[in-house]
Amino acid sequence: VKMTKSIEIIPEVVFEKDKIEFKPIEINAYNKSIEEEKKLFLKDDFKAIYHDMCVLREFETILDKIKKEGAYKGIKYNHKGPAHLSIGQESAAVGQAFTLGVSDHIYGSHRSHSEVLAKGLSAIRKLNDKKLLDIMKGYMDGLILEVVEKNHQGSYKELARKFLIYGTYAENFARKTGFNKGLGGSMHVFFPPFGIYPNNAIVGGSGSIGPGAALYKRLNRAGGIVIINIGDGSFGCGPVWEGICFATMDQYRTLWDKKLGGGLPLIFNCMNKGRIQ
């Protein structure tokens, strides 16, 4: 990479009076009708999207009841860990994950159960049975698979969905059969084989980690994109703006090898909860 060795500064130009103008930024501009949307998806796509949203809502509802009432449908459990839920954000998580590939990576916040599950369910649909079985057998030497395959009589994709949901619950409950042996817990769960990378308990923490992951993809020509899922409150944190500035440096396009593809393959996705409006 060639870095600038000298910069010519002409005072008359630097101190010349001028003004900065920005183009208008549209808000809530997407406005397609239901009939228009129907043409973009198959009926099975809509069923899959609705299915995944229901899975996410039920997952969070169960956690909520266990945390508040100490039981779910007669099964008692004392959950001493956190339960940072995202009830009401199911469509945002599923809508994002539905079109992502397995090689696309997501990084989240302390409130990312839904994003984890949505990305996992999307990956399961896109992977063939052999690949799914290889992942489940190879992950932690098949420890999680050993639990969920007992008495299972359905398809491999159904088994993989059980694997995903069980592994995420077990991680929340600090069990050794969790995706990260219970050491990550609710706020740090991750599962790389499905493109699910660590979430972060620090507000806006992923805002400075994600650009580095995107840079890795760009330099190694790894393919896929990186999405940083953070809340609007994160934009009050300096590291998020550092990440944005790092991601938008012009040297990616002007100084780097053109074959690398220009800017970073990165999206900052803000879940607007009205914190800073």
UniProtKB/TrEMBL annotation:
GO biological process: one example: pyruvate decarboxylation to acetyl-CoA
Keyword Oxidoreductase in annotation: yes
InterPro entries named among the record's database cross-references: DH_E1 (IPR001017), PDH_E1_Alpha_Subunit (IPR050642), THDP-binding (IPR029061)
Residue span(s) of domain Dehydrogenase E1 component: 167-271
Keywords associated with the record: Oxidoreductase, Thiamine pyrophosphate
Entry GO MF terms: oxidoreductase activity, acting on the aldehyde or oxo group of donors, disulfide as acceptor
Source organism of this protein record: marine sediment metagenome
Cofactor(s) of this protein: thiamine diphosphate
Record-given protein name: Dehydrogenase E1 component domain-containing protein
Annotated Gene3D superfamilies: 3.40.50.970
